[in-house]
Design goal:
The chain is α+β, with helices and mostly antiparallel strands. It contains 4 helices and 19 strands. Among the domains are: about 30 residues; about 100 residues, Elongation Factor Tu (Ef-tu), domain 3 (Beta Barrel). A 6-stranded antiparallel barrel has the order 4-9-7-6-10-11. A hairpin with a 3-residue loop joins strand 16 and strand 17. The two termini are about 80 Å apart.
């Protein structure tokens, strides 16, 4: 009887331990289950385009809004611009002739001295030369007639018909290279050169004018080239079209009306306008003046209108509340990745399940943790 009781007791104990283990495992599986989803959020963007008015009347205390100060300066200078080379093709073949003097005395040859090849092709020197005895001198020659048919190969020997016959075998010429029609570059002023000089002159002189005004600014003021109205008072080249020269001189005089402004005030006004372009519950990312396109409009004594455009980037205000956690319950890692990345601007970086052997996320939303960070 006692043996039967002991056996029953052992059976109950084993069952109790087994059930306890099941409860413990179940509690660990369901109670300690957790899913952690780490995502990267990329900013959205939109193009903003709007007008602003800058007040220039410092004496009017009733004016509120964006204020600036107008500086007016006249500047002048002479700008130098390199003239672009123009290729010019010769109508005659030519090259460098080696003039050989095997005689003991020097020989002077005047410009247009003739050199005659055995096939009758005639070339002439383009300058005067003196060839000392027992010496070779180089000189440029051109064919007497136009056309490529006057070409000769390197090494062609020429006599000088104008010399006494007894000297023609002692003083002669040889082609140092193939004589062909050549192309040379000349620098002749064109309208394009003048236009380029004018454009470069305006840009250069405007920068110099703005630089000269910086000493007059208040510590908070800056001069933006986009807020400068430039009027060309005078612009004329010292050399006319067709003049052969290496450097073109362009005389220019400008009136530069520049608006000095506090960039922080400008950005504050811009941010106020751009806020109207982004959805609610979103944060506007910082904007720099250099990111904006500023077009200066009509200028008068009391104000100036400008057109401002640029890209406005923004992100949701509450990053960790971007996703509905109920969408992610009971899902595999691949399913969660697909659900997250179906949302515009979101990329999954990492997904973790605990315990690690879990194949699906917990069924309770409170056991799903989402960590979102902004992309760089």
């Amino acid at each position: 009887m006692a043996s039967s009781v002991n056996k029953s007791y052992k059976t109950v104990t084993i069952i109790f331990i087994f059930l306890s283990l099941i409860i413990l495992v179940g509690t660990s599986y369901f109670g300690l289950a957790q899913a952690r989803v780490m995502i990267k959020v990329f900013p959205h963007s939109t193009i903003a385009d709007f007008p602003l008015t800058i007040n220039l009347d410092e004496d009017n205390e009733l004016i509120t809004g964006l204020n600036g100060k107008l500086y007016d300066i006249t500047v002048s200078k002479t700008v130098e611009q390199n003239v672009q080379p123009t290729p010019i093709s010769d109508t005659k073949t030519g090259g460098i002739m080696n003039v050989v003097n095997e005689y003991s005395r020097e020989q002077k040859l005047v410009r247009t001295t003739r050199f005659l090849a055995s096939d009758g092709k005639l070339y002439r020197t383009v300058s005067d030369i003196t060839v000392p005895g027992k010496t070779t001198v180089k000189v440029k020659v051109l064919a007497d007639k136009d056309g490529v048919e006057q070409a000769v190969p390197a090494g062609t020997k020429f006599i000088i018909p104008g010399l006494w016959v007894g000297l023609q075998d002692k003083i002669y010429g040889e082609a140092s290279s193939d004589f062909n029609i050549s192309t040379e570059e000349v620098q002749i002023v064109s309208q394009t050169d003048i236009d380029n000089a004018a454009q470069a002159g305006v840009a250069q002189l405007t920068q110099e004018a703005l630089a000269s005004l910086k000493g007059n600014l208040k510590p908070s003021e800056t001069l933006n080239p986009s807020l400068a109205h430039v009027t060309v008072i005078k612009g004329e080249p010292a050399e006319n079209v067709g003049t052969e020269t290496q450097v073109l001189h362009y005389n220019i005089e400008l009136r530069v009306q520049a608006i000095a402004i506090d960039e922080e005030d400008l950005l504050a006004a811009v941010n106020t306008e751009i806020q109207t372009y982004i959805p609610q519950d979103n944060n506007l990312l910082p904007i720099k003046v250099s990111d904006l396109e500023i077009i200066l409009g009509e200028l008068n004594d009391s104000s100036v209108s400008v057109r401002i455009s640029g890209k406005a980037s923004y992100t949701p205000s509450a990053l960790d509340d971007l996703l509905d956690r109920s969408e992610l319950t009971g899902k595999s890692k691949d399913d969660i990745k697909t659900i997250v990345e179906n949302h515009d601007g979101m990329v999954v970086e990492k997904i973790e399940f605990r315990p690690a052997f879990r194949s699906k996320s917990p069924q309770l939303t409170g056991q799903i943790k989402i960590t979102a960070t902004l992309a760089d």
